[in-house]
Amino acid sequence: MTKITVLVGSLRKASVARKMALNVMKMFPENYDVAIYEIGDLPLYNFDYDDANETDFPLPESYTAFRETIKSSDGVLFVTPENNRTIPACLKNAVDIGSKPNADVAWKNKPAGIISHSVGKMGGYSAQKNLRLALSYFDMPLTGQPEIFLGNSPTLLDEAGNINNDKTRDFLQGYINQFVELVEKNK
């Protein structure tokens, strides 16, 4: 079984990012185990947690669980909105937590895909570019073209949270197929 961890950059239960993630999770092959890892309860990153000389800050169990989940994954799919022209704080926090300790970075060489969205026409362009920049530091193989920027994203979903048109569904399926190829190539 190929394991994909999905990180949703919004903490809202009914967020568009979560709805998009739930839609694309169904687009993976049957032999893929695809699950959302909830990042909302991760404490804000503090290097003292990883400093062996610092005894006042024991490493949170949630950090260890998150890092082990990422390391045991065959790939990571990020689905994120754009907040103030960048990625949401919860997602940046998760990136930082996975980046330590320096000798055992969870992200290192892990295939990644990114789907960004916004209520405006730009589709989360700035968030995606910021996230790509952060992930490039870890030598993560990233999907190339097409990049997925879903503009006016709430209009792409019906009342039940399902994608409401074939064009968007087919576009996302093509992207998931490309991401699966990247994961298979980098196992």
Automatic annotation (TrEMBL):
Its cofactor is FMN. Its EC number is 1.7.1.6. GO terms for cellular component: cytosol. It is an enzyme of class 1 (oxidoreductase). GO terms for molecular function: azobenzene reductase (NADP+) activity; FMN binding. Keywords: Flavoprotein, FMN, Oxidoreductase. Gene3D superfamilies: 3.40.50.360. Residues 2-152 form the NADPH-dependent FMN reductase-like domain. The keyword Flavoprotein applies. The keyword Cell inner membrane does not apply. It comes from the Bacteria. It holds the Pfam family FMN_red. This is NADPH azoreductase. It comes from Phocoenobacter uteri. The gene is azr.
